[in-house]
Automatic annotation (TrEMBL):
InterPro entries, A to Z: GLR_AS, Glutaredoxin, Glutaredoxin_subgr, GRX_bact, Thioredoxin-like_sf
Pfam families reported in the protein's UniProt record: Glutaredoxin
Domain Glutaredoxin: 4-63
Name of this chain's protein: Glutaredoxin
Protein's job: Has a glutathione-disulfide oxidoreductase activity in the presence of NADPH and glutathione reductase. Reduces low molecular weight disulfides and proteins.
Family per similarity comment: Belongs to the glutaredoxin family.
Source organism of this protein record: Zhongshania guokunii
Electron transport listed as a keyword: yes
Alphabetical list of PROSITE patterns matching this protein: GLUTAREDOXIN_1, GLUTAREDOXIN_2
Alphabetical keyword list: Cytoplasm, Disulfide bond, Electron transport, Redox-active center, Transport
Amino acid sequence: MAQVTIYTTRFCPFCVRAKQLLTSKGVAFDEIPVDGRNDLRSDLAKRSGQRTVPQIWIGETHVGGCDELYALERGAKLDALIAS
C-alpha cells in the first residue's frame, strides 16, 4: 500500500472531508498540520506549488486537494493509486 501524506489545518472543512474519505477506505495516512507553522507552509509551497490545504500525496504522486481526491474516487482510480 502506498504511503499517504496529507498537509492540513485544524479548522479546514476540506481537510476533514479528505481525511474522512481516506479513513472510510481504511487508509492510514501521515498528517502534517501546518497551523501557525510558516516553515511547514514554505515546505508545502516548495513541494506542491500551493499554499492551500489539504495537499495530498499518495506515494510520490501529488493528488492535489480534497476535490481532486474525491474525483479520483468517483472515477474509480483512487483504490488503484493507493494499492500501488
